[in-house]
Amino acid sequence: MKALLAGLMVAIAPGLLLAQDLSANPAQTAATAATASVAFELHIEAPDEIRTLLANHLELLRYRALTDLSDSELARLLTTAEQETRELVGTLGYFTPSIRFDQAAPRDSATTRKVTLTVVPGEPTLVADVQVQFSGPILAESAAAPQRQQIEDDWSLQAGMRFTQARWDSAKQQALRELTAQRYPTGQLASTLADIDPVTRLAHLAVTVDSGPAYRLGGLVIEGLKRYDEELVTRLARLTPGSIYDQSEMVNAQQRLTDSGYFDSAFVSLDTAGDPTAAPVRVQLREARLKKLVLGLGASTDGGARLSAEHTHHKVPGIGWRAVSKLMLDRESRTLGSELTSPPDADNWRWITSAQFQNQALGSFDVNSQTLRVGRGQIGDRIDRNYYLQYERADTATSDPTKPSIAQALSANYAWTLRNFNSAVFPTKGWGLGVQVGGGSTLGSQNDPYGRVMARWIGIAPLGVQADSTQTALRAGRLALRAEAGAVLAKDGVALPSTQLFLVGGDNSVRGYGYRSLGITLPDGQTTAGRYLATGSVEWQRPIISNGLLTDWESTVFIDAGAVADRPADLRAKVGVGVGVRWKSPVGPLQIDLAYGVAVERLRLHVNVGFNF
Length: 613
Hints:
9 helices; alpha+beta; 46% strand; 16-stranded antiparallel β-sheet; single chain
C-alpha cells in the first residue's frame, strides 16, 4: 500500500526539536553514561549514517535523566521509540527497516539498565520519476522559457537516486530559489508530493511551481541621505527603471553602494506590495562619516611588521571629490601617497589623480621614487578599466658613479581586468585575466621611446564531478593555476626607472624565496630588476575532513616557478615547492605555506590573508 508523503518531516519534527533541546550531547558513549546517574544506557547497532541520526534525534534519549523511571514506563517508551525510529530512518529513504529493542535485565537494583537498539535498514527507496510543473504567468511568457528550463534541468533529486528527506527538501528549495531569483520574487511552491511505495521501494515525486506575476523595477525610494544627493546613489546602484527584476542585480547594487566608501551600510529591496509593472526599489542607507582616520598595525612574511595610517575625506570642499591619503611603513618599503577621485558619472567612470612618494628595496638596491598619475577608471562587477598618464622618477642608490642613478619616464597606460569567479572572497572555481599595456618616453638627457606590457591569469578548477553527493565532489579538491608574464621593450642602454622593471619572489609570486629577491644577478653578486618576467604556479587545494565532515581548513601542495632576465632567451626558472594550509577567516582566506626554494636550498614560511585579483 502506498504512503502519500507530501511533507515527510511534519510528523517527526516536534520530536526532533525536543531531543535537541533536552539532550546536550545525545551521542554520549556508554562509558560516559556509566559515570553519571542515568535511568538506562542505550546502545545503537546500525550503519554509521543511521546511528548518527538516531543518536542526535531520538526522543528516547532525553529520558535517561529520569532516574526513577520504572520498568513499565521504560517499556512504554520503547514502544513509542520504535515508531519514531521508523520515521527517522524513513527520512534517509529506508521505509522497510527491521527494528528491535533488547533490554538486558539488571543483576540488582543498583545496576544501570542496558537497552540495545538494532536497526537493519533494508534496501533504500529510489526515485522512480519526477514531475516539475508550472502555473501562473511563467507558462505564458516566452521570455521565461529559459528560466523554466533551468529549473527543470537543475532539479537535483533525479530518477535513480536514493530518496532522502534532506535531498527532497534541498531540491524543492533549489527550485524555489531559482524561481524567485529572477522575474518572480513572490513565486511559491503551490504543491509538493512524494508518493512512496514501500513494497517496490520507489518514490514518485511531483512539484508544482506557481510563479506569481513578473515584476519590473520602478524608481528608487532612497532613505538615509543627508550629505550626498540622490544622483550619486542612482549612479552607484545602476538599477534601470523598467528592467526585469533580477535578485543578483539587486545584490550587486547593494554591494556597490557598500564598497563605494560613502556608506557604512546599504540595504536594497523590492517593494512587492506595489505595482508589479513598476515596483518601487527601496534603498536604505547609513552614510559614512565625512572624514575618518584609520590606524593599522600588521605583519607579513614579505614585508615584516607594518604600520599604516589612512585619512579619508569623502567630499573635499570646492570640488566634491574624495581624497584618500596614506602612510605605510614596513621592512621593505616606506610609502606616502594621496589620491583624489571624482564621483562616478552616468557610465560609472571616475576621474582619478594621485601622487606617491616611496622608498623601497628592489633586489639589492635602495630606490627612492616619485609617481604622478592622472586618468579615468571604471570599476564594474566583473570588469575594471583604467587609462591614465603617468610620470615616474626613480633614484637608485648605486656604488658605480659612472652609471646614472636617476631615471625618469612619461607614459600613457591602459589596464583591463576581468574576474569570472563564483565568489569574490572565497572562490572555488572560475578564472581571472588582467592585462596592462603602456608606452612612452624616458626623460632627461636622452628621450628614448619604450613600451611595457604585462598580463596575469589565474584559473581555479574543481577536480570532483558533482553527481549524487556534493561533499564527494568537494573532497576531491581543486587545482589553482597561476601565470604571469611581462616585458619592457626598449633599445639596449636606455635608462628606465627601475620601478618599471620586474622582480619576482614572495607570498604571491614564487614561494620559497624572499620578496622581490629574484632578478638579474650582477657580476658582483647583487640582484637588480630586469626587462622580462615569467612566473607560473600549480596548486592542489583539498579540504581537511574531521569526523567525516568538511571543515573550514584546507591543505595544499604546490610548485612555483619564475624568472627575470633582460632577454627572453636568458629566462631561467627558479623553482619553489611546498605544502600549506588555508583557513576561511572572517576577512578572507588565510594562507600559511612552508616552501622550499630549490635554487637557494632553504625553507621559507609564507603567510598571506585575502584573495585579490
